[in-house]
Design a protein that fits this description.
Elements lengths: L1 E6 L2 E3 L5 E9 L1 E12 L6 E6 L5 E3 L7 E6 L4 E6 L8 E11 L6 E4 L3 E5 L2
Parallel strand pairs: 2-11
Antiparallel strand pairs: 1-3, 3-8, 4-5, 4-9, 5-6, 7-8, 9-10, 9-11
């Protein structure tokens, strides 16, 4: 089985920083794209940032210039450095990986359990 374990959420004041980490483990053959999504109360889950195996990144407009996504392919980990946090960044953040399990023919999406980020004074 494949598991995505997130860490790094918490409470931070506006303007502060947090770093989220996600490690994928289990019977993994290959990982394609890794990314972070978030869901605020009463809102749909939205993409925050993604990073492909070769390092190509995408960001939601509200995260550009403030968030940085990175990954370690050897360790199957993805990080999200969040700076200049705003109250509207408050949400549950979910790690996502598009990966192929050992013995599988296809890539499939996998999700972490989510980690709460609260930006408040």
């Amino acid at each position: 089985q494949v598991q995505l374990a997130e860490s790094g959420g918490g409470l931070v004041q506006p303007g502060g920083s947090l770093r989220l980490s996600c490690a994928a483990s289990g019977s993994i053959f290959s990982i394609n794209v890794m990314g972070w999504y978030r869901q605020a109360p009463g809102k749909q889950r939205e993409l925050v940032a993604t990073i492909a195996t070769g390092g190509l990144t995408t960001y939601v407009d509200s995260a550009k210039g403030r968030f940085t996504i990175s990954r370690d392919n050897a360790k199957n980990t993805v990080l999200l450095q969040m700076n200049s946090l705003k109250r509207e960044d408050t949400a549950v953040y979910y790690c996502n990986a598009i990966l192929k399990e050992v013995g599988s023919r296809y890539y499939s999406p996998y999700w972490g359990q989510g980690t709460q980020v609260t930006v408040s004074s």
